[in-house]
Each structure stands twice: as C-alpha cells, then as structure tokens.
Amino acid sequence: MTDAYVALADGRVFEARSRAPGRARGELVFTTAYTGYEESLTDPSYEEQVLTFSYPLIGNYGVRDERFESDRVHPNAAVAREFTDDVAEWLADADVPAVDHLDTREIVTSVREEGAMACGIAAGPDATPAAARAELDAAEPMSAHTEIGAQVSTPESYTVESTEASDVDAGVTGVDADVALLDCGAKGSIISSLAERGADVHVLPHDTDPATVAGLEPDVLFVSNGPGDPATYEAAEALVEEFLGEVPIAGICLGQQIVARAVGGETEKMAFGHRGVNQPVRDLETDQVVMTTQNHGYSVADPGPLDVTQVNVNDGTAEGLDHEEWNVLTRQYHPEANPGPHDSLGFFDDVLATVAESRRVVAAD
Predict the structure, then answer these.
(1) Angle at Cα 324 formed by Cα 320 and Cα 329, nearest 5°?
(2) In 55, 223, 300, 326, which residue has its Cα 20 to 30 A from 131's Cα atom?
(3) How many CB atoms lie within 10 A of CB 130?
(4) What is the extent of the structural domain holding 254?
(5) Does 158 share its domain with 78?
(6) What does the buried/exposed string (b/e) look like for 262-301 if buried means 16 or more CB atoms within 10 Å of the residue's CB?
(7) Which of the following is catalytic: 145, 202, 206, 334?
(8) Distance between CA 153 and CA 177 in Å, rounded?
(9) Taking 90 as the threshold, does the pLDDT of residue 166 lie above it?
(10) Using CA atoms, how far apart are residues 352 and 197, in angstroms rounded to an integer?
C-alpha cells in the first residue's frame, strides 16, 4: 500500500507506507544503532531532523517510557524499513509522521555518498508526491535554526539532587559536588549519571547569564549535548568564556564544540555525521580503543589551545579535548551510552575528579 512519499534533495521521491500520518521536513540523517530506538527518538539532539533507522525492524521490544531521554519525541519524522505497531502508535499519538516499507538501505547509502540532505515527507490518505516536494522546498539548513536551543532547553532552572549518599573521603565517586549543567538539549541519562555519583545537578536554560551561574558557586560548569549548529549558541559560548580558568568545565557532544569555540577554536559541518553505537575512539595517551555512542553532525575542526586527547578511528576527528591548567575536559561522544556500550562511563568519574583536584589546589593556596 502506497500512502506516503519521501522527497529527497537529490530529486528522488520514494514511495512508502504511512504508519503515522502528517507532513514533515528536515535534515535527513541515519543511525546505525540496532537497539535503543526509544532513546534515539527522545534524544533532543535530533530536533529539526528526519531520523532514518538503518536496522530493518524497529520496535521489536515494545515502547516503555522509562527508557525515554526526554519528555517528547524530537525528530520531525521517522523512517524505517518496518515499524512495529507499538512504535507506530506511539509516534501517531505524538503527532510525529512515520513511514516504512521503503528501501532504507538505498537512503542510507545516498546519505553516506552525498551527505545529510533536506527531505520532505507526506503521509496519510491525502499524501501525494507533490505534497512531499512542497515540504522539501520549505526545508531549511540546520544553521538556519538559530533558536533551536530554546526549543529543547529547560525554560526554568531546576535541581536534581544526588541519588547517592556521598562521602568526600570515598574517592572519585562520592565527591559532594554542585554541577551547573547548561541544558542545550541534555539527555536525561547525562543528568542521572552525575547525580548517581554524588553530585547535585543544577539544570539551567541554555542562555543563562553569568551572574546566575556565579550565584550557584558551582564546582563544575557542564555544557550538555544538543541539536544544531554550535555557532548559534552564542550565550553558552560566552558563559564558558566567563568561567574559563575559574571553575572546571566539562562538555559532551555539542558541549565539546561550544567549549572549543569559546577558547578560540573552530567547528565545521560534517558530511553525514556520526550517529550510532559502534563508533571506535582511540585514546592518544594509552592507545586504547573504546566503542562509543554518538549523535552529532558537527565536529571540532580546530581545538585552539585545547589538547586533542582522543580521536575517531574511522576519520580522525577530535573525540576528546583537555586543558590541564584550565581544568577543561570534554568528549564528542556520549559516555552515558543510552543506548550503547558502557566503555566510557568513567568520564563522569573523571569530571568529578577535577572537583577534588580543584579543591586540593584551593586548600593548598
């Protein structure tokens, strides 16, 4: 049954089956993850994008909201070879168009060869190729979404208290810490990963002013993941500049890019990005390779004065940045790994270790 169409920027139109009706447009990207569809669909980093799953069957273990990374579905639409009824009903209830019964292998190959591209989708009884093309014509590049941070960030500050009885003498895990987390589209598992290690996490809007952060007297300024072009997060960049060298600074994914820009580095759009749970990353000091979860379409092209400590095995892009004197520690991948391997969970311990070290320095002075 053909009652849906996917129009690509390269001129092709795919016939498909509607699983959740509606019209949508956005940047077409793909993930290679074969599990974690609930986490991916609720990841704020997919805002304003159309998410294609390369794995052929999506939904084979149901839908459970305890796996969600946020309170809503973020992609503008979803595409798969086949969605189960559970996932299709979930997306329909969320008013997110979904289509299947098309050749996702061809779509993924096209994106790999030509790069992430705009697409338009029309699904439902009144869908036509012309309607899908009209959506495509109205699509904007990610860099044009200058207010994307406001779409995914918390509108008001709130605090997630430590979920572990902490003890400052217990080592890294158990350090009492106040983390000011700048929410640029943070996954819930990042917040819980810090809280589970003894931190009180103050979740702040992406454009929080320096005076508010200073009033919290944080032990760490943590810049989260999020969608879009890092160049559009000017307030976050300015905040990092304000506290650079004053408190330890950490970042994940978009957070790494924002931190790099704040110290004079540069970022760039990637051809099709890294999205999946099997990206190999090599540590330059230990030469150890770990498998990581990733979801980003931009990368750090020039780290400025920051040291590149980890690189992607496949393409050499910067995966970890460090500055010992300024107490800066960032990762391009997602150490919380929901979904994905837990090879890099120690990053959160390393972040809290900077708190302990900072306190020792202050005490010595």
Answers:
(1) 35
(2) 55
(3) 11
(4) 148-364
(5) no
(6) bbebebebbebbbbbbebebbeeeeeeebbbbbbbbbbbe
(7) 334
(8) 23
(9) no
(10) 8
Of 48, 69, 253, 319, the active-site residue reads 253
**What pLDDT does residue 365 have?**
54
Residue 334 bears catalytic tag:
yes
Distance CA 88, CA 97 (A): 9
Distance CA 27, CA 76 (A): 9
Catalytic residue check, 274: no
Q: Is 336 a residue of the active site?
A: yes
Residues 339 and 190 in one domain: yes
Residues 53 and 87 in one domain: yes
Task: List, in order, residues 6 or more apart from 116 with CB less than 8 Å away.
Answer: 27, 28, 29, 271, 272, 273, 297
Shared domain check, 31 and 180 = no
- Say which residue the tokens 């809290």 belong to: 352
Cut 0.90: pTM above it: yes
Q: Residues 250-288: pLDDT tens digits?
A: 999 999 999 999 999 999 999 999 999 999 999 999 999
**Residues 284-338 pLDDT 10s:** 999 999 999 999 999 999 999 999 999 999 999 999 999 999 999 999 999 998 8
Query: Is the omega angle on the peptide bond into residue 339 within 30 degrees of 0, that is, cis?
Result: yes
Give the count of domains, the chain.
Answer: 2
pLDDT of residue 284: 98
Q: How confident is the model over 30-51, as a mean pLDDT?
A: 97
Tell whether the torsion through CA atoms of 286, 267, 329 and 252 is positive or negative.
negative
